[in-house]
Amino acid sequence: MQFLFPLFLSAVALLAIPVIIHLFYFRRYKKVKFTNVRFLREIKEESSIRSRLKNLLTLMCRILAVLFLILGFAQPFIRKDDNIKKGRKAVSVFVDNSYSMASLSADAPLMDEAKRKAEEIVQAHDLEDEFQIISHDMSARQQRLIGKEQALSMIEEIELTAEVNSLSKIQQRQHQLLDQVDHDNRVIYYVSDFQNNISDLKIEDTTYEYNLIPLHAVVEHNVSIDSAWFDAPVQMLNTANILYVKVSNWSDQPAENIQLTMRRDGAVKPIGSLNILPRSSVVDTVSISVLRPGIQKVELKITDFPVQFDDSYFLTFDVTQQIRSLVVQDNGANRYLDAAFAPDEFFEKEDQRASNLDYSTFNRFRLIVLNELRDISTGLGSALKNYLENGGNLVLFPGVQSAMESYNNFLGSVQAGRLENWDTTERTVNYFNANEFVFKDVFESSRSNIRLPSTQGNFLINSTGRPVEKLLGYRDGRSYLVKYRVGRGHLYLCAAPLDDQINDLVKQAEIFLPMLYKMALSTSANRRIAYTIGSDNIIEMENTASSAEAVYKVTGTSSFIPGQQSFGKQVILNLHDQIKDAGFYDVYLREDQPLASFAFNSNRLESDPVCQSIEYLRQQYGDRANIVGRTQLANLGQFIQEKDQGIVLWKYCLIFALIFLALEALIIRFWKA
């Protein structure tokens, strides 16, 4: 047996006080005269023996009462191991509040049980100890030490959250705080279901005491919508836009008759019924026809119990009504370009002469066509480079009389190829890249029936050492039309002029018209249709603010003003973890005019319900951490006290002290000497 505060044992000297009181206690006797001395002697001897026995018992009770009181203050304990904790403790308690904790244990939801166990941990420590209560939210208020009452209050406020962080990230936050304190002991607790996908603890620092408290659900099965994506990078009006949906079965049993539905424009449409094999996924297709331009909001949903946080998937996309395009020429308008743009309701075309260009307006156009300019000036080249890097699309048709040096200077500035050697050889295009966005899903007929352009002369496109994508090619392998990625935009370079006497591309309507349309729609930075809560805090959109003082506002299940930085025609919004619930979030400059809509979904990291078992945790961390089993979990507070202090005996000492004081009172009250 050992003592937590052995200095209190010096108070044993106080045991002399009841002994001194006993030795110097003299009782006065009253004289009584008797006629028979023999009877008096007998009474006196009998009373003396009983009085001495009573006084000795009283003395013994007093000594034992004082002794056990002193032992109680010294706090004796029986050591169970060598990890007895003395002094103040800094205790960090992680409470897992991810959606997987909504599963049911044998008695209640895991979330409720986790909060009860966290409260037991706090209650088992002393008043002078300080606590950090941390969850997946990892808010600023969770990054400080608080007292016992505040800790209990904070535990009560914890609710389920869509945010999910790996345990290694939680561990890093705990270390950041505990490394700043000078407490005698630093103790860490994890109250979690320890799902495989987030449990990546690395317990290496022996200056911390780690305690793992696993809570497991009764049933471990789940079906989730993992993700969704469109077949094409851009969605168009009056077209069947194909959406792929991936649904996964995370259990060891087949999932049958899983109903997939789609909510759009306030109406719910059944998509189909899915049967999924154990531990596998299926990809279903959804056809979405868009009849009106603007922001489109779609919610995909399945029905699955008990884990439901991943049963819905939100997505948004924007269909443009009209695409603004700019045609730049030295001379008069090209009648073929006018014909290509004029009848199309999706294009809003503007013509400008090269000598009167307003470079500041470039960012307003999705597509710029340079048609046979004599040269590309340094100023124009710089403006076009900036336009491309910000996500614009540029189509370049060189002229026979064009100054190739100025063209190549511009192409070199954007790290594209070179134009060389005007060749008057007649050539015919026989290759088109049907897998590239510009020509993908354009032709319904077979390849042999497609009429491809021919030229009476062309430049050699030299792309040696430059990343390039060939869209159309000649029979001899030379390139007719190529694409370069420049920043977030695309540069399309044709080897021949647009003059119909040299190039009959303008007469091949089945190639020319869809090519211009898809070029205008293409972008190397395709807008995402969905974001993940907790992982994606930065979103980018077109900047429509008229002044630098304009403030964007995000509104959904909550409203807030995000951080914002403008870069040309783009603005970056920093959400700072302010989105907590899955759903649609609209961006406004004016309250009645939504500029964009973004869909946020819960993190699918915990869709797989498989958790690390107690046996696995003991095998992995048993030599460096305390793994709380089911028996210890039933009385967690007692386990913690015995772990920190051994088998505590001070309570029993106080009980014995009270017992002996009670015995003393009974002896004095009822013993007639």
Per CATH, the superfamily of the largest domain is: Class I glutamine amidotransferase (GATase) domain
Radius of gyration: 41 Å
Using the 3D structure, state the CATH architecture of the largest domain.
3-Layer(aba) Sandwich
Spans of at least 5 consecutive residues with low confidence = none
Q: Got a strand count?
A: 34
What top-tier CATH class of the largest domain fits best? Alpha Beta
What percent strand? 25-35%
For this structure, the CATH topology of the largest domain is: Rossmann fold
Major sheet, described briefly? 9 strands, mixed
Helix content: 10-25%
How many DSSP helices?
A: 13
Could you characterize what this model shows?
With 673 residues, the protein is of the alpha/beta class. The chain folds into five domains: 2-79 and 650-670, no CATH class; 89-219 and 610-645, von Willebrand factor, type A domain (Rossmann fold); 223-320, Immunoglobulins (Immunoglobulin-like, Sandwich), CATH 2.60.40.10; 323-521, Rossmann fold (3-Layer(aba) Sandwich), CATH 3.40.50.880; 531-601, no CATH class. It has a nine-stranded mixed beta sheet, sandwiched between helices. Strand 27 and strand 28 form a beta hairpin. The model has no long low-confidence stretch (mean pLDDT 86).
